[in-house]
Write the structure tokens for this entry.
Amino acid sequence: MNVLDFLITPAEACKRTGPHDQIVFSSRVRLARNLKGLPFPGHAKKADRLKAFEALMPAVAGLPQMGEAPFAEAMDKLSAMDKQLLVERHLISREHAAKNAGSGFVLNQEETVCVMVNEEDHLRMQALRPGLQLKQAWLAIDAVDSSLQERVEVAYAERYGFLTACPTNLGTGIRVSAMLHLPGLVLAEQINQIIQAVNKLGLAVRGLYGEGTEALGNIFQVSNQMTLGESESDIVERLNKVLLQIIEHEENARLKQVAEKPKVVFNHIGRAYGVLSQSHSISSKETMNLLSLLRLGVDLGMFGPTPKSLVDELFLCSQPAHLQIGHPEKLDAEARDAFRADLLRQRMKAVPGPDHTKVASKPE
Amino acid sequence: MRCQVCKKAAATVHLTQIVENQVKKVDLCEACAKEKGVNDPTGFSLADLLLGLGAAQKMEEATTATGAEVVCPDCGFTQADFKKSGRLGCSKCYEVFADGLDALLKGMHKGTQHKGKVPPAVRRTADVRAKLTQIETDLKAAIAREDFEQAATLRDELKHAKKAAQEA
Ligand SMILES: [Zn+2]
Ligand SMILES: [Zn+2]
């Protein structure tokens, strides 16, 4: 089946809402599992990899939690473009996109549960929710895992818990994470302090896009690092507490920037609007940074009734594979930059010019 | 400052983390950071990196203390493989390399004993075992107080429970 036909449109996907979604794009919980009696995928011979693949694909696709007619396909049956689309939607890892025969991918229609088969572990199962909903995501993936374990036997030891290829995932095999938009903390130059503080709690913070410490679009991912010696609900609870604090800091930083340096904030946002709506060639990097400012402007009330879902949709649609949709010939970087600008100019027509007088000037 | 992985290029990516009051630092060049997946949201964790650097040595020291090279009998994995990939080969590897792993896990996680979810089947077995123990205790108590009617009931119950446990 064609990935594009199955996937929810970007417009629809971005309309989903959840608690704190001004700052938290999405919450996800991932579990790593392996089959009992078979070597881990990275060290398995082809025959063993296929054995795992053949046992797991129908077992996963047939789970009640995967609903009616889920998407289930072998990685070698997907085109490079399909794989890239899935990466841009955060449904598979880059590593998994590089996999071929013997690896697979299963996704339910609502796009709330996805499973990678034969990634680094036999199973990487994820539940996704919009906004801050870590507990809901954990409960959802826990149910998937429990019903799958009625069908296949997984590698488990009393001492070490669920056994994973990498010792960093051992025990619960859980990775709880949230994707955050933190333009306020970046503008206020407080982001590094926050990152250090969060690191001290044994949690990881990193830019979702971009090289090194640079975070394109001011988008950050916070996740747990430790998986052994602590229960899943404790990990979820701890991360949730930290996220609520980050949200508070981000809200305060925005209010403070607007109160103390309104010209700087309005200047950034106004220029972002200008470039996004008037350029004829624009890189992915510049686009993400400007869209971040546009989203901040929407949150501050500068763009009237413009929904932030429009900005989120543009984030998604300006990624390389999404731009490629509808173009049979492979676009090079130059052509993509032109098409990206065309798309932005077209869609920005729906956004009224920025009005800074609509911004509440004093923190309540 | 040199990159800790290739030991050639200048380190431009610096990562710090404090786990259990231990400061851990990694300095990498742009190329190695990329290769190690530092920029990949789904692939990277600092522990992963550390694993590829110092921790593998710790494990090697622990396992070579016994002399001979340790090889996993199930999958043929060796310490050299671990050092190269930072991954293990199969479930059995966790038993084979247990001595070295413990030191490594201590620095990486909150503890070395799993405290999370138990597979449903394992939990059920444990429940059955707990039930058997309970009946046996009750039975002994009934016999001690010479309540033979109760003891007979419990004996039947025990027989059924044992049979059910075997069939499960
Ligand atoms: Zn290097
Ligand atoms: Zn092994």
